Amino acid sequence: MTQLTVIILTQNEALHIARAILSVRDVADRILVVDSGSTDGTVQIAARHGATVLRHGWVNHAVQFNWALDQIVGTPGWVLRLDADEVITQTLADEIKAGLPEDVDGCYIGRGIKFMGQLVKHGGVFPISTLRLFRNGRGRCEALWMDEHIVVAGATTHLRGQVIDDNRHPLDWWVEKHNGYASREVVDVLNVEFGFLPCAGALPGHGRASVKRWVKRQVYARLPAGLRAGAYFFYRYVLRLGFLDGAQARSFHILQGFWYRYLVDAKLGEVRRYMAANGAAPDKAIRDVLGIDVAPAQPAKKVLVA
């Protein structure tokens, strides 16, 4: 069986963490939970279910995940990136148990989403194929604030199994989370334009993720800010048949496919107006308007919790 380390980043994930750990316990040699200050018992639950728990202050997902990779330098085998509210399917577990290919550095895995308990099936979006499984030492997370991906040095392949995102928090939590996502996406949009932050790593020029990013930056970004959210929603909900989904999944298309995209544009406009009115640099405007300090984070020491 493949030697595997599973990395899970957490902050107040008591509702989900046991389920995530249990889904990979039979295929993982080590489960590493990196916690950024949970106060709801997440750390204790993770430790009780056999995970090694480390604490590290949060900057963004890329910084946190790469820090986790730095803690397992030299560990043989593969790494699986798993969110705390995700589980792996039995098909994926069986593929890992059977042994991963010897001639690749990474494996793309489909990611399905359940929204308010209902699987999203339409809209031309899911399952999303992302690189989640890779040889330790051969992959790194892009230094982005949003929509970051794992980049590997060598060849890749696709597996049949999936991870399923099944968050059980109420809708208010989802809205607040995506409000934060929108602010982080504004950071990346402005950084592409002004280059005030380094961007380590880049997606190779093939695969669905790289094509999606090219379309987003070269086509979507050139559309008028007041229209592009609506155009994307029409594509996803009408042309790609999102309206055929169930009631909860249709809500997902409306909220994530229109409301979220419009929110990003509204926040982007707010920051741009502040820059123009105050002669402010992008990083200062982001800090003053969005409350995000994009200054490079200072390295933190590893703290073993359990």
UniProtKB/TrEMBL annotation:
UniProt entry keywords in alphabetical sequence: Glycosyltransferase, Transferase
EC number per UniProt: 2.4.-.-
Record InterPro entries: Glyco_trans_2-like (IPR001173), Nucleotide-diphossugar_trans (IPR029044)
An annotated Gene Ontology molecular function: glycosyltransferase activity
The protein's enzyme class: transferase
Domain Glycosyltransferase 2-like: 5-91
CDD domains registered for this protein in UniProt: Beta4Glucosyltransferase
Superkingdom of the organism of origin: Bacteria
Pfam family, one: Glycos_transf_2
Protein family membership: Belongs to the glycosyltransferase 2 family. WaaE/KdtX subfamily.
Protein name: Glycosyltransferase family 2 protein
Native organism: Yoonia algicola
Organism classification: Bacteria, Pseudomonadati, Pseudomonadota, Alphaproteobacteria, Rhodobacterales
